[in-house]
Amino acid sequence: MIRCVMIDLDGTLLRKSGKKTAGISDENEHALQRWQVAGGLAGIATSRSAGYIQKYSSRTWAAVVGWNGAVIEQGGRRWLRPLPSRDERQLWRTLGGDQPENWVTMVTPDNDWLAYDLRFPLARGYCENPLGLIQDHRQVLEWDPRRPDLQLAVILAVYPDACFAQAVSARLLAQDRGLHAIETSSRTLMIVRAGVDKAQGILEAGRKLGLKREEIAVVGDDRNDLTCFKTFENSFCMASAEPEVRDEARWTVESVAEALAIVQRENKQRS
């Protein structure tokens, strides 16, 4: 029996009126309410920070897996898988290559975003945020190498194209720095500690909840959900996803509400 459904945010739970990140639709809200009233558990698994869902919902979640598994929040407690201690200056160069404008942001456990130089276009975009697209940070600060105590959580990297992103991912793997690059889009990487990914984060959250793997279902829509689709038998992909992502999930659905309806139907058939 499926006892818990772990749900992605952008493009999944927050997909509304055809927009990837617009809020929780009434259909999804009512379906979640029915699921939880019936005793089901619902959680969040996202590449965003663990606290991002609070912008859209005050609902109590069984667990929240953030930053693709780098942080887990459950029962008022928080577990962080920080990046290994490294020379950040050299790491920045490894990820950005010889073009400083491609150097990226590093994120602290407090969800401050650190920029190598606030004059770089990417950093300016985070700071000025003219379109209101960047909602997931507390503040943007310039990186200060004199603060060795500053713990880093994840690294976000946006590249000009997919080839650039793939080259950086391969270079990082070859250097064996104890880091792992997760594709969140064809040209965007999230760098986390080796062994960390969304599926592993969900498994860890499930253990904390006393759940077996087969008691967990996952709903997602993007490349970073692929490990979830391969790890959990009960997997759902949004119909709006790329075909190669959809093909890895057991079911394709139009909404989280539809996924929850299938879960309830499956549970009834198994009981």
UniProtKB/TrEMBL annotation:
GO terms for cellular component: cytosol. GO terms for molecular function: magnesium ion binding; phosphatase activity. Pfam families: Hydrolase_3. InterPro entries: HAD-like_sf, HAD_sf. This is HAD family phosphatase. It comes from Holdemania filiformis.
